[in-house]
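Recap quiz, item 2
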Amino acid sequence: MSKFGEEWTRGYRDMLIEAGSRALADCNLHGEEIDGIVVGTMAPGSLVGQEHIGALVADFMGLNPVPAIRVEAACASGGVALRQGYMAIASGMHDCVVVGGVEKMTDTPGEEVASALGGAGDQEWELFMGATFPAIYAMMARRHMLEYGTTEEQMASVAVKNHRNSSKNKYAHFQNEITMDTVMKSKYVATPLKLFDCAPITDGAAAVVLMPLEKAKKYVEQPIEIVASAQASDTLALHSRASMTSLRATQAAAKKAYETAKVTPKDIDVVEVHDCFTIAEIAAIEDLGFFKKGEGGKASLEGKTALNAEISVNTSGGLKGCGHPVGATGVKQAVEVVWQLRGKAEGRQVKDCEVGMTHNVGGSGATSVVHIMKRA
Amino acid sequence: MSKFGEEWTRGYRDMLIEAGSRALADCNLHGEEIDGIVVGTMAPGSLVGQEHIGALVADFMGLNPVPAIRVEAACASGGVALRQGYMAIASGMHDCVVVGGVEKMTDTPGEEVASALGGAGDQEWELFMGATFPAIYAMMARRHMLEYGTTEEQMASVAVKNHRNSSKNKYAHFQNEITMDTVMKSKYVATPLKLFDCAPITDGAAAVVLMPLEKAKKYVEQPIEIVASAQASDTLALHSRASMTSLRATQAAAKKAYETAKVTPKDIDVVEVHDCFTIAEIAAIEDLGFFKKGEGGKASLEGKTALNAEISVNTSGGLKGCGHPVGATGVKQAVEVVWQLRGKAEGRQVKDCEVGMTHNVGGSGATSVVHIMKRA
């Protein structure tokens, strides 16, 4: 990973190259062994005026003529990049693929960032009508409160827990803990969501290297195996869905992932979920099967999702604490799970960590990607 | 395919759904049998304010929760989408993938389109300095003229031939033939390239359905086999390359494709090449091995690339005649080759057509994708 944050002294290219170089160093890999590149990034055309990102990376990492592509699925761009990389290896057409994720967001005026992020939803039926992403997730929160009695305190506890984790992560955007009081007294962005319920606008990049397992064993002492890679879609617009409190795409992707990996939620030791807003983490830990529908808020406030509690959720700090450079997030989740499975998560290490999961969402849930990983 | 052209009465979504529905009808396929979607599109964020295109397509084709992604490699977005779809089948993770390509360009003011297309090149080192894509290809043309004596008449003959082909293609943007006189008397856009040396700004979409071969035989009488799918990269900026007259990425991708398919240029009966400018077709037929370097212009003027001549190049009309809705182009090339291999190319049918090739380029050559297809 590059250090996440408001990185005004570094550009889009610099961050990706930094993350990519670290990933290569981590597995003692020389560039000439790489035969494929996949980059997840959401809106570089709008945010930094550059498309053709696959070729950009191949060029600036000195990897021509390696085939390189960019994939996009809004905020799930990193997750789908990981899945495409996995597929490239599984197809037998590639033997060593670098998967990167990146977004450079703070060089762009706020309203333009909001407009670019709006591209994750249905522009014609949601954004054009005045909805923004905080407003869309606020509706999901309101409905969760109505149906299950979820409270603002429960949501606030998610932010507090995620900052506690990110304060122990030197790559995180926010390195400070916060209190319930700070969250509860912060201003409403879209009621009931307050400033501290929202993930920040962040710059950053992350990268991983994928190989067939037997090959990976030759490069690193602790290779991590992807035992399931699943993805599902749902309607682009929130108003078309049967439920506003469950993400059907997450449920479908999780079901497929559990079946493929032959594990259950009880087997998962660490999970990085997509907490673009605190309510999103609450819905996610329910949809992924860690808690019953409606009980995610209570579980969060009771500390069941804290480090080394019932299930360690977002040890990196999640999108809220570690930051959310959109296209980088899904890859960063994989980096965190790899560190946890290797026992290298420093002050935020999950004990006896054997099985990890990542959960990356696009828009308000139109794309969901779930990966399960194990120590090989 | 949707009908290519200036489609002011139809939106981005409409065109993709139209092409997708036709592809499904063509192979007697029901939606519930599809288990993956890949869409190639270059700049919908800049052009129509929408990202998250995979999810959009899954939603509007009624295919939720099928996993769906968007891939981008500038003007090669369609070609890389085809390759990702091929990889998805080869990985064993998918059994029936719809690959689409789309771009909606005419709803956007010209200068914004030029800026969006600029994202295909190196924004920091080329576009920001004042270069546009016609200017970049004009430099390649000037150098080709200097090194090999290529003439403006030779380039003009490419446009005349491609319009002759597109006049026989009911899906083409331009349905009219043009004369050498028309091209030679048209105004300079960037000397030596004139208006009729340039592919137009076009709206359109195209789609194909991919399955394992044995499965495909159950759905259609004439399945077409992809016998090679190859891609390569080169520097994003033209000035970083060893040659301005050859695309190294095209040469590398073609080499890999010929080796994989175990065929030579002599075996290819029909090829769709990336003629965003007439000089690009001349360089392509050289780089793909149909003519020696420097002889592409002469061969074109002598009619060797015409329908049923030495090698039938761009029977669809190519980007010049059929139109160039950027993300759709790479998929449209595959559609044309499928029609040719099935003997269904109507007035532009290549005789005894058994092996076909597609060649799709991103930017000024930073990405190149080559596919070879055969009758199964």
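The domain at 12-375 of chain B is CATH 3.40.47.10 (Peroxisomal Thiolase; Chain A, domain 1).
Chain B has a mean pLDDT of 97.
End of item.
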